[in-house]
Design a protein that fits this description.
By secondary structure, the protein is mostly helical. The protein has 4 helices and no strands.
Length: about 180
């Protein structure tokens, strides 16, 4: 074989090997970039989901507090029937808002918080029913106050479940998250 043919073969083999190595390196870089992008996307989605879940928890607790306040307003002594009916209507509307907030939390999760929110929503409902019964003379103020205490504990458990679910269990609990039930 002549030197020029041998040089041409070596040059062709070198060019092919270089091309193959460049192609392999590029494929490796693309694969690595896809993995980094997928991990970044998964992390971003997890953060967005967590933010949505936190917002749903906060919305539920806020709505429960507002609902409790409206129920307490309907319990004020000396209300004439028209004032009572207006406040009762406001309490029903607030309870409907609470049901919607609980539904969002049930969908968004986390599950442990959704379970606590369901119990809290039912405790607000029981307080509402007791407050109406008190107005009609069927139960005592103490019975309604007991329902209010149960509601405060239940809503507090929502906050505790949320702190545990979001890894903030070491934070001290906030002040009582609900309106007191003294009439």
């Amino acid at each position: 074989m002549s030197d020029s043919l041998l040089t041409a073969i070596i040059t062709a083999i070198t060019a092919f090997a270089g091309s193959w190595l460049a192609h392999w390196g590029l494929r490796h870089q693309v694969k690595a970039q896809r993995e980094v992008t997928a991990a970044d996307l998964a992390e971003r989605r997890a953060a967005e989901s967590r933010a949505t879940q936190k917002a749903a928890c906060i919305q539920f607790i806020d709505t429960a507090i507002r609902c409790a306040a409206v129920i307490q307003e309907a319990r004020q002594p000396g209300l004439i029937d028209d004032e009572y009916q207006d406040r009762l209507t406001a309490a029903r509307s607030a309870l409907s808002d609470l049901i919607r907030a609980q539904a969002v939390l049930s969908v968004e999760g986390p599950g442990s918080v959704a379970v606590a929110a369901t119990e809290a929503r039912w405790s607000v409902d029981r307080e509402f029913v007791a407050a109406r019964a008190e107005r009609n003379g069927l139960v005592s103020a103490e019975a309604v106050n007991a329902k209010g205490s149960a509601r405060r504990r239940a809503v507090g458990r929502v906050g505790q479940a949320a702190r545990r679910a979001f890894g903030n269990d070491d934070e001290p609990p906030l002040a009582a998250p609900c309106v007191s039930g003294v009439a």
